[in-house]
Amino acid sequence: MKILNIFCFNWKKYLFEFLSIFVAVISAFALNNWNDNRGDNIAVAKILSEMSSVLTKDISDIENNIRGHNAGIASCKYWRRIIDNSENNVDTLSFYYISLMRGYFPVQSRAGYETLKSRGLELVDNDSLRLEILSLYEYDYYILKRLEENSYEMQFEENYSKEIKRMLSTNFQFDVNGNIESINIPIRLTKEEKHLFLIYLKEIEFNRNTMINYYEDVKQRIIKLKIEIEKELGR
Fold first, then answer.
1. For residue 147, what are the contacts with CB-CB under 8 A and spacing of at least 6?
2. What is the pLDDT of residues 22-75, one digit of tens each?
3. What is the C-alpha separation between 178 and 198, in angstroms, rounded?
4. How far apart, in Å, do the first and last CA atoms of the chain sit?
5. Rounded Cα distance, 140 and 142, in Å
6. Cβ atoms within 10 Å, residue 226
7. What is the dihedral of CA 78, 83, 204, 172, to 10 degrees?
Protein backbone atom coordinates (compact mmCIF):
# COMPACT_ATOMS: atom_id res chain seq x y z
CA MET A 1 0.00 0.00 0.00
CA LYS A 2 2.83 2.35 0.89
CA ILE A 3 4.59 1.51 -2.35
CA LEU A 4 1.39 2.19 -4.30
CA ASN A 5 1.01 5.58 -2.65
CA ILE A 6 4.61 6.47 -3.51
CA PHE A 7 4.05 5.39 -7.13
CA CYS A 8 0.90 7.50 -7.41
CA PHE A 9 2.69 10.48 -5.93
CA ASN A 10 5.63 10.14 -8.34
CA TRP A 11 3.28 9.63 -11.29
CA LYS A 12 1.39 12.85 -10.51
CA LYS A 13 4.69 14.66 -10.01
CA TYR A 14 6.09 13.50 -13.35
CA LEU A 15 2.80 14.26 -15.14
CA PHE A 16 2.77 17.77 -13.71
CA GLU A 17 6.40 18.30 -14.75
CA PHE A 18 5.68 16.90 -18.22
CA LEU A 19 2.65 19.14 -18.66
CA SER A 20 4.61 22.14 -17.40
CA ILE A 21 7.39 21.47 -19.93
CA PHE A 22 4.88 20.81 -22.72
CA VAL A 23 3.00 24.05 -22.05
CA ALA A 24 6.29 25.99 -21.87
CA VAL A 25 7.49 24.57 -25.21
CA ILE A 26 4.15 25.23 -26.94
CA SER A 27 4.02 28.75 -25.52
CA ALA A 28 7.58 29.45 -26.63
CA PHE A 29 6.81 28.12 -30.10
CA ALA A 30 3.62 30.18 -30.36
CA LEU A 31 5.43 33.31 -29.15
CA ASN A 32 8.25 32.75 -31.63
CA ASN A 33 5.74 32.21 -34.43
CA TRP A 34 3.85 35.36 -33.40
CA ASN A 35 7.09 37.33 -33.37
CA ASP A 36 7.99 36.01 -36.84
CA ASN A 37 4.58 36.92 -38.22
CA ARG A 38 4.71 40.33 -36.56
CA GLY A 39 8.18 40.87 -38.02
CA ASP A 40 6.96 39.86 -41.49
CA ASN A 41 3.93 42.13 -41.22
CA ILE A 42 6.10 45.08 -40.20
CA ALA A 43 8.54 44.36 -43.05
CA VAL A 44 5.75 44.04 -45.63
CA ALA A 45 4.10 47.24 -44.39
CA LYS A 46 7.42 49.07 -44.74
CA ILE A 47 7.98 47.71 -48.26
CA LEU A 48 4.43 48.58 -49.34
CA SER A 49 4.78 52.07 -47.89
CA GLU A 50 8.02 52.64 -49.81
CA MET A 51 6.43 51.15 -52.93
CA SER A 52 3.52 53.58 -52.64
CA SER A 53 5.92 56.54 -52.49
CA VAL A 54 7.87 55.29 -55.49
CA LEU A 55 4.66 54.78 -57.47
CA THR A 56 3.99 58.50 -57.10
CA LYS A 57 7.34 59.16 -58.80
CA ASP A 58 6.52 56.57 -61.47
CA ILE A 59 3.30 58.44 -62.26
CA SER A 60 5.28 61.67 -62.57
CA ASP A 61 7.76 60.02 -64.95
CA ILE A 62 4.93 58.64 -67.08
CA GLU A 63 3.28 62.07 -67.24
CA ASN A 64 6.58 63.62 -68.34
CA ASN A 65 6.93 61.05 -71.13
CA ILE A 66 3.33 61.63 -72.20
CA ARG A 67 4.06 65.36 -72.42
CA GLY A 68 7.17 64.55 -74.46
CA HIS A 69 5.24 62.40 -76.92
CA ASN A 70 2.55 65.09 -77.19
CA ALA A 71 5.31 67.56 -78.03
CA GLY A 72 6.41 65.12 -80.73
CA ILE A 73 2.88 65.03 -82.13
CA ALA A 74 2.75 68.84 -82.10
CA SER A 75 6.04 68.77 -84.02
CA CYS A 76 4.51 66.50 -86.66
CA LYS A 77 1.67 68.99 -87.14
CA TYR A 78 4.14 71.89 -87.28
CA TRP A 79 6.28 70.26 -89.97
CA ARG A 80 3.18 69.27 -91.91
CA ARG A 81 2.26 72.97 -92.04
CA ILE A 82 5.84 73.81 -93.06
CA ILE A 83 5.62 71.33 -95.93
CA ASP A 84 2.21 72.72 -96.97
CA ASN A 85 3.62 76.29 -96.82
CA SER A 86 0.97 77.28 -94.27
CA GLU A 87 3.39 77.96 -91.38
CA ASN A 88 5.35 81.21 -91.17
CA ASN A 89 6.47 81.12 -87.53
CA VAL A 90 10.07 79.96 -87.40
CA ASP A 91 10.78 81.16 -83.84
CA THR A 92 10.00 77.68 -82.47
CA LEU A 93 11.76 75.89 -85.32
CA SER A 94 14.59 74.42 -83.21
CA PHE A 95 12.17 73.12 -80.56
CA TYR A 96 9.98 71.37 -83.11
CA TYR A 97 13.00 69.98 -84.94
CA ILE A 98 14.42 68.43 -81.77
CA SER A 99 11.01 67.24 -80.51
CA LEU A 100 10.12 65.58 -83.81
CA MET A 101 12.39 62.55 -83.39
CA ARG A 102 13.20 62.62 -79.70
CA GLY A 103 12.74 59.34 -77.82
CA TYR A 104 11.74 58.78 -74.20
CA PHE A 105 12.59 56.07 -71.70
CA PRO A 106 10.57 54.81 -68.73
CA VAL A 107 12.57 54.95 -65.48
CA GLN A 108 10.19 53.18 -63.13
CA SER A 109 11.87 51.94 -59.94
CA ARG A 110 11.63 48.22 -59.14
CA ALA A 111 13.58 48.37 -55.86
CA GLY A 112 10.58 47.90 -53.54
CA TYR A 113 9.14 45.14 -55.69
CA GLU A 114 12.47 43.29 -55.91
CA THR A 115 12.81 43.46 -52.11
CA LEU A 116 9.32 42.05 -51.70
CA LYS A 117 9.99 39.33 -54.27
CA SER A 118 13.21 38.31 -52.52
CA ARG A 119 11.36 37.90 -49.23
CA GLY A 120 8.46 36.11 -50.90
CA LEU A 121 5.42 37.62 -52.59
CA GLU A 122 3.21 35.33 -50.51
CA LEU A 123 3.93 37.61 -47.54
CA VAL A 124 1.23 39.85 -49.06
CA ASP A 125 -1.74 37.81 -47.92
CA ASN A 126 -4.22 39.92 -49.90
CA ASP A 127 -4.52 37.84 -53.09
CA SER A 128 -5.99 40.65 -55.18
CA LEU A 129 -3.28 43.12 -54.13
CA ARG A 130 -0.52 40.58 -54.73
CA LEU A 131 -1.84 39.91 -58.25
CA GLU A 132 -1.99 43.63 -59.05
CA ILE A 133 1.59 44.13 -57.88
CA LEU A 134 2.78 41.14 -59.91
CA SER A 135 0.90 42.31 -63.02
CA LEU A 136 2.25 45.88 -62.88
CA TYR A 137 5.91 45.03 -62.34
CA GLU A 138 6.21 41.81 -64.33
CA TYR A 139 3.97 42.73 -67.27
CA ASP A 140 3.03 46.42 -67.60
CA TYR A 141 6.45 47.87 -66.78
CA TYR A 142 8.16 45.20 -68.88
CA ILE A 143 6.00 45.97 -71.94
CA LEU A 144 6.46 49.72 -71.41
CA LYS A 145 10.24 49.36 -71.39
CA ARG A 146 10.25 47.05 -74.40
CA LEU A 147 8.03 49.38 -76.43
CA GLU A 148 10.08 52.51 -75.77
CA GLU A 149 13.56 51.04 -75.91
CA ASN A 150 13.38 48.02 -78.21
CA SER A 151 10.41 48.23 -80.56
CA TYR A 152 11.42 49.19 -84.08
CA GLU A 153 8.50 51.61 -84.51
CA MET A 154 9.53 53.79 -81.57
CA GLN A 155 13.16 54.35 -82.67
CA PHE A 156 12.44 57.67 -84.38
CA GLU A 157 16.01 58.95 -84.42
CA GLU A 158 17.34 55.73 -85.89
CA ASN A 159 14.55 55.28 -88.44
CA TYR A 160 13.95 58.82 -89.70
CA SER A 161 16.74 61.16 -88.70
CA LYS A 162 19.19 60.50 -91.52
CA GLU A 163 16.64 60.89 -94.30
CA ILE A 164 14.87 63.91 -92.78
CA LYS A 165 18.19 65.69 -92.22
CA ARG A 166 19.11 65.03 -95.84
CA MET A 167 15.81 66.51 -97.09
CA LEU A 168 15.95 69.58 -94.82
CA SER A 169 19.66 70.36 -94.80
CA THR A 170 19.63 72.65 -97.85
CA ASN A 171 16.60 74.52 -96.47
CA PHE A 172 18.11 75.40 -93.09
CA GLN A 173 19.77 78.71 -92.35
CA PHE A 174 22.58 78.62 -89.78
CA ASP A 175 24.10 81.25 -87.48
CA VAL A 176 27.85 81.88 -87.14
CA ASN A 177 28.12 79.10 -84.55
CA GLY A 178 26.56 76.54 -86.83
CA ASN A 179 23.23 76.41 -84.99
CA ILE A 180 19.96 76.18 -86.91
CA GLU A 181 18.60 79.70 -87.03
CA SER A 182 15.78 79.55 -89.55
CA ILE A 183 14.45 77.72 -92.60
CA ASN A 184 13.58 78.76 -96.11
CA ILE A 185 9.89 79.57 -96.54
CA PRO A 186 8.46 78.12 -98.72
CA ILE A 187 10.46 74.96 -98.12
CA ARG A 188 12.13 73.45 -101.17
CA LEU A 189 11.41 69.73 -101.55
CA THR A 190 10.93 67.49 -104.55
CA LYS A 191 7.53 65.88 -104.94
CA GLU A 192 8.99 62.55 -103.86
CA GLU A 193 10.65 64.10 -100.79
CA LYS A 194 7.45 65.87 -99.82
CA HIS A 195 5.39 62.69 -100.00
CA LEU A 196 8.03 60.72 -98.14
CA PHE A 197 8.27 63.35 -95.41
CA LEU A 198 4.48 63.33 -94.98
CA ILE A 199 4.53 59.53 -94.65
CA TYR A 200 7.23 59.79 -91.98
CA LEU A 201 5.19 62.36 -90.07
CA LYS A 202 2.11 60.13 -90.20
CA GLU A 203 4.06 57.15 -88.90
CA ILE A 204 5.68 59.13 -86.08
CA GLU A 205 2.37 60.66 -85.03
CA PHE A 206 0.57 57.31 -85.08
CA ASN A 207 3.26 55.54 -83.03
CA ARG A 208 3.45 58.36 -80.48
CA ASN A 209 -0.33 58.23 -80.04
CA THR A 210 -0.12 54.46 -79.55
CA MET A 211 2.56 54.96 -76.91
CA ILE A 212 0.55 57.66 -75.13
CA ASN A 213 -2.49 55.37 -74.97
CA TYR A 214 -0.44 52.62 -73.34
CA TYR A 215 1.15 55.10 -70.93
CA GLU A 216 -2.32 56.29 -69.93
CA ASP A 217 -3.48 52.70 -69.33
CA VAL A 218 -0.46 51.94 -67.16
CA LYS A 219 -0.90 55.21 -65.29
CA GLN A 220 -4.46 54.22 -64.33
CA ARG A 221 -3.23 50.81 -63.14
CA ILE A 222 -0.57 52.50 -61.01
CA ILE A 223 -3.15 54.81 -59.46
CA LYS A 224 -5.41 51.84 -58.73
CA LEU A 225 -2.55 49.87 -57.18
CA LYS A 226 -1.51 52.85 -55.06
CA ILE A 227 -5.06 53.14 -53.71
CA GLU A 228 -5.16 49.42 -52.90
CA ILE A 229 -1.80 49.62 -51.11
CA GLU A 230 -3.02 52.54 -49.00
CA LYS A 231 -6.14 50.54 -48.10
CA GLU A 232 -3.98 47.58 -47.11
CA LEU A 233 -1.74 49.74 -44.94
CA GLY A 234 -4.81 51.24 -43.27
CA ARG A 235 -6.30 47.89 -42.28
1. 154, 211, 214
2. 444 444 444 344 344 445 578 888 889 999 999 999 999 999 999 999 999 999
3. 27
4. 64
5. 5
6. 18
7. -80
